[in-house]
Specification:
Pfam families: DUF4267. The chain is mainly alpha-helical. Helix content is 69%, strand content 4%. The chain is built from 5 helices and 2 strands, in the order αααααββ. Strands 1-2 form a two-stranded antiparallel ribbon. A hairpin with a 5-residue loop joins β1 and β2. α1 runs antiparallel to α3. The radius of gyration is 17 Å and the shape is elongated.
Length: 138
């Protein structure tokens, strides 16, 4: 079994971000660039985003620790960020500059990381000189 360090790191960060939105959504929202107190509907959506990110991050982390195929979880992670970017694009003109940079910029970075994680080739050493691409192993 080979631990996928990138999946563990990315999954851990996403899970921690999600948990922060569950534990203290107002503080987490400020960290992501919003200085205002969100209304009840926005707080519901912040918590929903927290559940989503904690779930995707936790499952990506678990797959990475177990040495399992992580492509699907990287795609799910990037897809979640793509949904955030698409949703934010419609209201970007109403967002403060800090929220556009941190929130939407973070989504762009997350999409890139998700695509990178899903398309990279992992090589696992199975002997002193032999290597097998991870995506060709059962």
């Amino acid at each position: 079994m080979s631990i996928d360090g990138a999946a563990v790191a990315v999954g851990g960060l996403r899970m921690a971000s999600g948990i922060s939105f569950l534990v203290d959504p107002l503080r987490a929202n400020r960290l992501w660039g919003s200085p205002d107190r969100p209304d009840a509907t926005a707080q519901l959506l912040l918590r929903s985003m927290g559940y989503r990110d904690a779930l995707i991050g936790g499952l990506l982390l678990a797959a990475g620790v177990r040495g399992r195929n992580t492509r699907g979880w990287f795609l799910a992670s990037g897809g979640a960020d793509a949904a955030d970017l698409l949703g934010g694009a419609g209201v970007h003109h109403q967002m403060p500059q800090s929220q556009r940079i941190i929130g939407l910029g973070g989504a762009v970075v997350g999409i890139g990381v998700g695509l990178w994680g899903a398309t990279r080739r992992r090589v696992v050493q199975s002997g002193p000189t032999a290597s097998v691409p991870r995506d060709q192993m059962s």
